[in-house]
Design goal:
By secondary structure, the protein is α+β, with helices and mostly antiparallel strands. The protein has one domain. It is built from 4 helices and 5 strands, in the order E-E-H-H-H-E-H-E-E. The strands form 2 sheets. Strands 3-5-4 form a 3-stranded antiparallel β-sheet. A two-stranded antiparallel sheet has the order 1-2. Helix 1 runs antiparallel to helix 2 and helix 2 crosses helix 3. The longest helix has 12 residues.
């Protein structure tokens, strides 16, 4: 053993080696945030830009956890990433949420506001 890793010996050339790569692990916080954003209708590429996690990783998590996004193709949420001060200003305007819904999620030292228009019934 070298540095706590299993040592191997090649039977052809007698070379000794260790397999050091264990794979990259991603903090579960980002997995949960990515899945939340996906369920809210944010695209994989947008999730990649927001969280800095590969869209392929997000797609793999969606498959692994069998997450189904709502099948409503008529709406697309808008989102903003804001600091705390910007978030306070955002909600100080009474017109901000008129006829719409929103969700706020924390992203490190910032906040993401996901907003969508409510469907109007005739």
């Amino acid at each position: 053993m070298a540095k706590g890793k299993q040592r191997y010996k090649c039977l052809d050339c007698n070379y000794h080696f260790s397999v050091m790569k264990e794979g990259k692990s991603i903090d579960p916080y980002y997995v949960i945030k990515a899945l939340q954003l996906y369920i809210e209708g944010v695209t994989l590429r947008e999730i990649e830009r927001i969280l800095g996690v590969s869209h392929v990783s997000v797609m793999n998590w969606i498959r692994r956890y069998n997450i189904k996004a709502p099948e409503n193709l008529e709406y697309r949420p808008t989102y903003k990433v804001l600091t705390h001060a910007e978030l306070v200003d955002f909600f100080s305007n009474k017109e901000t949420l008129k006829s719409s819904g929103c969700m706020i999620t924390e992203l490190g030292d910032k906040f993401m506001v996901i907003k969508w228009e409510r469907f109007k019934r005739n």
